[in-house]
Amino acid sequence: MSDNLDAQPDEFRSIASYRDAAAADNRKARIPHAYLDEYITRNGTIQAPVHAYLVEGHTSLHHQNLGMAADHERGRDHLLGGASGLEEADVLQTSAILDETSRQRNA
User: Fold this and answer.
1) What pLDDT score does 57 carry?
2) Is residue 69 part of a domain?
3) 3-state SS, one letter per residue, for the chain
4) How far apart are CA 15 and CA 8, in angstroms?
5) What is the average per-residue pLDDT within 99-103?
6) Which end of the chain is more exposed for a tag (fewer CB within 10 A), N or C?
7) How many structural domains comprise the chain?
8) Residue 72 near residue 23, CB atoms below 8 Å
């Protein structure tokens, strides 16, 4: 197994952008209140059990969407942090190489 990580910070940022868009899409999902409010009027009180099921189902889906949005946002934040960490590590490694090269030349 290789000791090297072949990943570029821009790749992490690209994936983070996807995660950000996915989170936004999840947050856009709304409970169709107007439809649910008119359901009994349109379909009669005999449909009350179906209405209750629809309300419960849409509420559950809404909470799941919010949870997925939060997961995407956490993933985005980790990816962006990883990109920054890779860049910082690259700068430190480059600096150490330059320092070593300078010491060898001065020796």
Assistant:
1) 97
2) yes
3) CCCCCCCCHHHHHHHHHHHHHHHHHHHHCCCCHHHHHHHHHHHCHHHHHHHHHHHHHHHHHHHHHHHHHHHHHHHHHHHHHHHHHHHHHHHHHHHHHHHHHHHHHHC
4) 11
5) 70
6) N
7) 1
8) yes
Q: Does 84 fall in a domain?
A: yes
What are the pLDDT digits (tens) for 16-71? 999 999 999 999 999 999 999 999 999 999 999 999 999 999 999 999 999 999 99
Question: Which domain does 54 fall in, by range?
Answer: 9-106
Exposed, middle or buried by CB within 10 Å (0-12, 13-18, 19+), for 19?
buried
- What pLDDT score does 6 carry? 75
- Return the number of other C-beta atoms located less than 10 Å from residue 47's C-beta: 14
Distances (CA, A) of 62 to 17, 26, 34, 38, 71: 23, 9, 15, 19, 14
